[in-house]
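User: Here's a chain of 142 residues. Predict its fold as tokens.
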Amino acid sequence: MPTRPQGWLYLTTIAVLAAGCATVSTDDDARNARLPTGVTLLESDRNDCAGAIAIDERVVANAGRADLVVQRGQNATFEIDADDDDVEIEWTCVGSADTDRNSVECPEETSHVRVTRATTGDEFLLECYGDRDGSVSRRARR
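Assistant: Prediction complete.
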């Protein structure tokens, strides 16, 4: 029985497309974390940083790492565990002339934070996610 090269071509094309759609995560750090089902965007804040963004290590302690630095073109999602009524995310713009510590306040219901950077420009987006109606608050999950 003769084989047709078109059949192999179709199978190869399908395999390549399927592999391109798959998301493979081998590292269980904050950069690969996904937002859990059921959380809502509570607040967002746009800022500028000419260098890398270093998130304060006290904020990302639950993410299984001591540091979190977000470069251009990267994003990071991490869970926070705050005992205060105010959730303050502290960050530093590393590599710029001004390395002052900055902060963004998130609502009390915040359980996850996502930092998103475009591949070009200095702007980044910091988003606070959580359960707005409080049915599954951080304190109730402990």
